[in-house]
Design a protein that fits this description.
Largest sheet: 5 strands, parallel
Strand content: 15-25%
Order of helices and strands: EHEEEHEEHEHEHHEH
Number of helices: 7
Shape: globular
Number of strands: 9
Radius of gyration: 16 Å
Oligomer: single chain
Bound molecules: guanosine-5'-monophosphate
């Protein structure tokens, strides 16, 4: 049996990775399993613990770091986020493809641990569009909007390091572009 493929979905902050992630996870041809991250960020009303994230407090997160049980972790907008190692390793070992969604700084450490992971960077069609999107999403928290915009600009600077850059002018189009690359990768690995 072949080890599953690890697909990393990253991109500028608030670029709309969520809709692309949903389309990829619902695509039966890709058979992707979602890697659920651990975070110290408070749960939003529409989120479910153990499905969207594992919501933990600072001491639990610190323990996971100490135990080296995270593949990578980062601080983003005042909260910690990390990818639990065990679920990714388990899914891969039973031949399942895994989707990991991380902000841009998380990609390097994952690629170091899993060099054959396939990384996608989702770019906005323009910085103006992204700014509009961030201001709409974080209308009631200007400081948060500014931090996200600054982070998005920094992330876009490292985008050329990714082998696959996808423009998100339409999530369905982005889904199909990513799908095509993953299907090729799956076919290549079957041949080895
Ligand atoms: P949000 O708070 O909006 O759910 O996520 C904020 C950012 O953290 C997003 O860009 C998301 O992709 C990223 N993120 C979520 N989980 C992880 C993780 O485990 N590691 C890293 N490095 N980033 C993550």
């Amino acid at each position: 049996m072949h080890k599953g493929i690890v697909v990393i979905l990253s991109g500028a902050s608030s670029v709309g990775k969520g809709a692309i992630r949903k389309a990829l996870l619902e695509d039966p041809d890709l058979d992707l399993f979602y890697s659920i991250s651990m975070t110290t960020r408070p749960k939003r009303d529409d989120e479910v613990d153990g499905k969207d994230y594992y919501f933990v407090d600072h001491s639990e997160f610190a323990q996971a770091v100490k135990d080296k049980s995270l593949l990578e972790y980062t601080e983003f907008n005042g909260y910690y986020y990390g990818t639990p190692k065990e679920q990714v390793n388990f899914l891969r070992s039973v031949g399942k493809n895994v989707l990991i969604e991380v902000e841009a700084q998380g990609v390097g450490p994952i690629k170091l641990n899993i060099p054959d992971a396939v990384a996608f960077f989702v770019m906005p069609t323009s910085l103006e569009e992204l700014e509009k999107q961030i201001n709409t999403l974080y209308n009631d928290d200007k400081a948060s909007a500014q931090r996200r915009l600054n982070k998005a600009k920094m992330d876009m600077e490292i985008a050329p390091l990714f082998n696959n850059i996808v423009y998100n002018d339409d999530p369905e189009k982005a889904h199909m572009t990513i799908k095509e690359i993953i299907l090729k990768e799956m076919a290549n690995r079957k041949e080895v």
